Structure formats: C-alpha cells, structure tokens
C-alpha cells in the first residue's frame, strides 16, 4: 500500500480508502462487513470513510464495531454531515450550526472514537449561510472532535469561498470527495485546477463506476445475480446510468489493455483515477473480502502515457465531462 498527503497538510492517507456507502448496515450482513474491514486492514488500508446518512446511521455503527480494538493512532477515520438522519425533523439535515454540532457528537458515539480525522460537508447547503457552516466546523476543530475539514461534491466557486473562510477562521480545508472515473470526468475542467491552486485533494468515489468498469456486466446479457445492478436497496438506481450496451461494449474493449499490464479491469480503473496527481485516494467498497484483496493491488501502479491515451480513445465521447454536473440539492430534503 502506498500513501499520499491529503491536501496541503501533513496528514497521510492510504491510496485506497475503504468506504461503506451501499454495503454496511444495508447490502451485506454485519459479519461480512467486519470481514471486509479486516481484509482492508490486512492489506495496509488505514483510511476508512463513512457518513451518518449511510443506512440512516447504521453504517457508522457497523464501522465503529468493526474497527473496535484497533490502535486509533494507526487509522484515519472520515465521516460526513448534511443529509437527513434520525426522525427526519426540520433540523435533521443541512449544514446549520445546530445540525453540525449534534451530528458530530452522534457520529463519534457510533464510531466509538473521541475524534474523526476528517469531517466532511456531504453536500453544499444553499439554505444556511456559508459563514455559519464554516464557523461551526472551526469550533469542532478547536474542540478536538475533528482534525481536518473536507467537503463532498462542491463546485469550484464553492471550494474557493469555503477555503477563504477556513483561512480566516484558522483551520484547514483539505479535501473534496467527488465522483470520478473513466466515465465520469466532470471535475477535470474546473474543480481539479481550483483544488490544485488551493491545496485541496480529491478523495474520489465510484472509481469503477458502480461496478461497470469491472467488466462483469456484458452487453445484451442480464446482470449477474447478487450484483449491484440487481440490488433493490439503492444499488440498481445508482448503476443504471451506465447499463447501456454502448457503454458496456467500450468497457469490454478495455480488457486487453488491462490484461497487457497484468491487471484486472477494476485495478485498471482504480489505477487510472490515481494517475491524477490531485487525487489523494480512491474509495472502494466491498461485499466480499476478496474484492478488497484484489482492488488494493491498484495502489502503486503507474500507467504509462500511451496507456492513458488508449483509454481516452476507447472511452471517447461516452465520458461525462460537463462541470455543471457537480452540484448539490437546491433545497434540503426535509
């Protein structure tokens, strides 16, 4: 496992982050989730990402239980705040001081830790003044409940505004967590250049495009049983964007590229996002320990320029590049 600095900070994180968005507390049983976390630890992953909204707080609880007994100083634990949790009351969502303050305390209890290494705004909140949000984050850092602050799916101007306030308030905004893959490149035009300027890294989610870039979905054939595309708890909705024959056919054309490098298609996809020097880590999930053991082998892989060119040629105009696709809900959900 290789490690990279997160933003313009002294914090190092593993190139592969283990995340439990659609799995823990929802898609897989807790004992399997615990085995996946142990596989991640065995493979050298030190960075774990979750959110209070995942499985309506259950994912944090499962991760806290799975990491219990580990040396806390050897881990980087990340969580997030924004989306509705609990009983869905009027203040159970967003980035108000009230919701942030209550959410960090609840997350720490579920995660069984005194602090998180990174606390992230899960989306931008148009209904709360940014100054209020950033002051609440500053207070959490001063209280020692979070060491650093990050965001998720914020556009370039939002990052710039938040970074300026963080400097005024005396804390570090060091990361953004966007979707990024060979098929979804919307951060490249605006978010990445702005982030480089400001000293912000990307921790990217869905590097294998919800499993599509693994090559397991074949054009003209039904999705394999037990795959995300057959999951009625949310997985199928997320992957359906890419379940088109024209996409699946292009993915199959990547198989010889991966094979020539001694990689699986999933490893190629993960190595591809890590080839972007503004990406600090690629988030992977797993429903089986074997998936973790395979995917971590992408860490440390360097893709030659000619291979990157081949990939661009194969994917072609199927990649989504519109920077306007980086967006947050216009209104809170409750």
UniProtKB/TrEMBL annotation:
PANTHER family: HYPERKINETIC, ISOFORM M, L-GLYCERALDEHYDE 3-PHOSPHATE REDUCTASE. Residues 15-315 form the NADP-dependent oxidoreductase domain. It holds the Pfam family Aldo_ket_red. Belongs to the shaker potassium channel beta subunit family. One of its GO terms (biological process) is methylglyoxal catabolic process. GO terms for cellular component: cytosol. InterPro entries: K_chnl_volt-dep_bsu_KCNAB-rel, NAD(P)_OxRdtase_dom_sf, NADP_OxRdtase_dom. GO terms for molecular function: oxidoreductase activity. This is Predicted oxidoreductase. Keywords: NADP, Oxidoreductase.
């Amino acid at each position: 496992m290789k490690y990279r600095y997160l933003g313009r900070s002294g914090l190092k994180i593993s190139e592969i982050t283990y995340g439990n968005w659609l799995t823990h507390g929802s898609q897989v049983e807790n004992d399997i989730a615990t085995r996946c976390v142990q596989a991640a630890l065995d493979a050298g992953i030190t960075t774990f990402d979750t959110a209070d909204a995942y499985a309506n707080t259950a994912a944090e609880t499962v991760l806290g239980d799975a990491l219990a007994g580990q040396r806390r100083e050897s881990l980087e634990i990340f969580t997030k705040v924004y989306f509705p949790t609990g009983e869905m009351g009027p203040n159970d969502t967003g980035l108000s001081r009230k919701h942030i303050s209550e959410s960090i305390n609840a997350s720490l209890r579920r995660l069984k830790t005194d602090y998180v290494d990174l606390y992230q705004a899960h989306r931008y909140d148009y209904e709360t003044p940014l100054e209020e949000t950033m002051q609440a984050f500053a207070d959490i850092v001063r209280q020692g409940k979070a060491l650093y602050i990050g965001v998720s799916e914020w556009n370039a101007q939002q990052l710039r505004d938040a970074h300026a306030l963080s400097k005024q308030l005396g804390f570090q905004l060091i990361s953004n967590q966007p979707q990024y893959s060979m098929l979804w490149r919307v951060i490249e035009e605006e978010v990445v250049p702005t982030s480089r300027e400001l000293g912000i890294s990307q921790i990217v989610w869905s590097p294998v495009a919800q499993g599509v870039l693994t090559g397991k979905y074949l054009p003209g054939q039904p999705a394999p049983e037990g795959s995300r595309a057959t999951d009625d708890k949310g997985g199928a909705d997320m992957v359906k964007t890419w379940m088109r024959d024209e996409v699946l056919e292009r993915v199959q054309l990547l198989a010889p590229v991966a094979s020539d490098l001694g990689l699986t298609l999933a490893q190629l996809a993960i190595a591809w996002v890590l080839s972007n020097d503004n990406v600090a880590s690629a988030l992977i999930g797993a429903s089986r320990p074997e998936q973790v053991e395979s995917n971590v082998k992408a860490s440390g892989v360097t893709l030659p320029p000619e291979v990157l060119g081949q990939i661009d040629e194969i994917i072609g105009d199927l990649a989504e590049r519109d920077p306007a696709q980086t967006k947050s809900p216009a209104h809170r959900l409750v």
